[in-house]
Specification:
Shape: globular
Order of helices and strands: HHHHHHHEEEHHHHHHHHHH
Strand content: under 5%
Structural class: mainly alpha
Largest sheet: 3 strands, antiparallel
Radius of gyration: 22 Å
Number of helices: 17
Number of strands: 3
Helix content: over 70%
Strand order of the largest sheet: 1-2-3
Distance between the termini: 59 Å
Amino acid sequence: MVNLISHISKYLIILLMALYAYLDIRFLSVKSEDKKKSLLMRLNLSMFLIHLLAYMVLWLKTEDESILAFYVLQAGFFLGYLFLYPFLYPRASGLLVSNSCMLLAVGFIMLKRLELSKTSGQMMAERQFLIAVIGAVITLLVPFAIERLWQLASYPWVYAVVGIILLGAVLIGGQSSYGARISLTLGNFSFQPAEFVKITFVFFAASLFYRSVSRKTIGAATAAAAVHIFILVGSRDLGSALIFALTYLLMLFVATGKWLYLAAGTLFAGGASVAAFRLFSHVRTRVIAWLDPWSDIDNRGYQITQSLFAIGTGGWFGMGLYEGMPERIPVVEKDFIFSAVSEELGGITAVCLLLVCFGIFLQFILLAGRMKAMFYKLLAFGFGVVYIIQVFLNVGGVTKFIPSTGVTLPFVSYGGSSVISTFIVMGIIQGLYIIKSREEEVKG
């Protein structure tokens, strides 16, 4: 009976995930407020049903009573967040709130399942949940601040200095992980500054290009951006360095509209990639593993081959929760969680998850197009670029489309710094939604 329920639940989750992805994309083209409310109700219902079915399967498979308590806590959090956010900010984007909850729900499901395997660390899902709750509560203040502090555009060099100091601290005294210095430890507290410097970096570029796009300004901005990137390269955090470089290049292009800058930046990025391959052994290892992982399947190619095996084994419909072996993939809870989703929940669910991520990106870009002030326009665009590049690097790495970069999947992968920084970004975008909504009301 348990296997039958699990099998049926697998297909129900796929159907609900496909429905969610469809409604999510459709929402972006709907104009009527009544239709939007109806779609949000169906989106949230689909998310809650997916969450319920997944935890029901995990409980039936393990008969662990603590799973039920953990499920109730999560359901309560989602309900509270979905009701509290529109209560505090009626003009905020309900779709962005729903999508954030959906990604978090998938992350909690997979982290709990991996935790139950007892090979990826115990209490992993609980720690992620606690951090998410704290991050969600604290960042409820972010839209309020964004809506009222136009002066945020007045301090471009403060953002640059803060970012450089934080990244420099990691370079000097950071802890290494898989060949890269990425985290700082203060007592019992460890965090990844690069996750937060992404935010100050976008503010720096947006506030500076809002003030001027003269050659002198662009030269100074490029020099500051280069310092950020070179420190990250020195720390061997090349995934973050790539995100910073591409984000700056695209923001510069949008601010100036000059293809010359885009072409020159692309050539420079290509040369820097070749230099990184020659200078850093762990980069060479990842590139060689990407080119031919099968030639050294027990060493350099082990992680990517296990990822490909997991994705291939899952197929379109998945093995079902607790039926696969995603724990065989090293660091599966962080960089390779998309492989775990593909193996157990299926390729269809994984594709729908990507559509949800793409829907978030579209919201950012559409908002950027609607904003009149260049500062706000560049903020929305910059954060959209950061978000979609991170998704691309993560999924591209686990599917062997590009070499692995060690980048997490926002709101889904394990990592407190990533979760909190993503909440901050979502709060900033919500603040921009509120500003735009008020502008349209005044205009109307």
